[in-house]
Specification:
This protein is mainly beta. Helix content is 6%, strand content 47%. The two termini are 33 Å apart.
């Protein structure tokens, strides 16, 4: 959705204090567990007009958002191993952009067919960074995806909407986290969903994710050994040409018993901040955890999106990529 009608500076006004959605180039990554292979691409990517950003990690596989299919053009698609696996649908609610994937494994049914993987993603039909929404898609191989429809609709108040989802499958209980940017505030919510029939999803409750350190936006979640982990933007964003994205990725943890109620009353402790001193890059944002198939913490590793101001708006955009950092 980032064409000539849109400028990233407009985003901060929609997300208050600059909360969310940074474009970002990232590196292509496959199988990392014990023998991780990391390709940290350098800033010269700007010369070929490619950006890669917003990764999600599932059991050694990484999906992400990129314009690899259309170098030099700002047209997002969701990619896996260099192949675009999800794109926009003409005339639909996600006709302009799809991005911000998150994927879990489970037993899912749609249209009478069974599927192994569930993806949540941000989609929109606007060019001005408003009315973003969240939808689902299903697959059996992470490559061929079938969209099931919109799951969380935007409040159409001229502001950002909802997006940047994160899914968890905790003992068969599906939790969907997402950022919300309205006229009143930018924050994060979680809904517990009955996804036994993806043609008729039922909400089992909703909670607000809050913390004493900061307001929460652009967050990913993972669980491990009675704890819930969260990584998100750090506010406020510093001034400069990239003043619409975070310079530090924060990591939090809280005890968790697996319930929606405990998420709404979590006592978050900040356990790490990832910034220039860790990555060597000016901006660090749109991070995700190294997770297992269900959203469990696979290792204490973050995939952190990075960016640098090297010139014009488009030059800066084409520095977007990601790297891994332990925390």
């Amino acid at each position: 959705m980032w064409n000539k009608l849109f400028t990233k500076k407009r985003l901060s006004s929609y997300l208050q204090a600059g909360a969310v959605l940074g474009l970002v180039l990232f590196c292509g990554i496959t199988g990392y567990e014990h023998n991780r292979r990391i390709l940290d691409e350098e800033v010269p990517l700007a010369k070929i007009g490619v950006y890669k950003y917003c990764p999600t990690a599932i059991a050694g596989n990484v999906l992400y958002c990129s314009n690899e299919a259309t170098p030099g053009e700002v047209k997002d698609g969701i990619c896996y191993n260099g192949v675009r696996v999800l794109t926009t649908t003409k005339g639909a609610w996600d006709s302009v952009q799809v991005c911000d994937p998150t994927v879990i494994e489970g037993n899912f049914t749609y249209g009478g067919d069974s599927y192994r993987y569930l993806m949540a993603y941000l989609g929109c039909a606007t060019y001005d960074c408003t009315a973003n929404e969240v939808g689902f898609a299903v697959s059996n191989d992470l490559v061929d995806w079938k969209k099931t429809g919109r799951v969380v609709a935007a409040v159409r108040d001229g502001h950002w909407g909802v997006g940047q989802p994160s899914l968890i499958n905790y003992n068969g209980n599906i939790f969907l986290f997402y950022t919300s940017g309205t006229a009143s505030k930018t924050t994060t919510y979680v809904e517990q969903l009955d996804c036994s029939d993806l043609g008729n999803i039922q909400s089992l409750g909703k909670a607000h994710i809050s913390c004493s350190y900061d307001f929460i936006s652009n967050a990913d979640f993972a669980f491990s050994d009675g704890m819930i982990y969260m990584t998100c933007d750090t506010h406020p964003f510093p001034a400069g040409k990239l003043d619409f994205i975070s310079s530090k990725q924060s990591v939090y943890s809280s005890p968790w018993d697996g319930t929606l109620e405990a998420l709404g009353s979590a006592h978050w402790e900040r356990i790490a901040q990832i910034g220039y001193e860790n990555t060597g890059h000016e901006r660090n944002h749109n991070g995700c955890f190294s997770r297992d198939a269900y959203g469990g913490l696979n290792s204490r590793t973050l995939f952190v999106s990075i960016a640098d101001a090297i010139g014009s708006w488009s030059d800066n955009l084409y520095t977007y990529r990601f790297m891994t950092v332990d925390f």
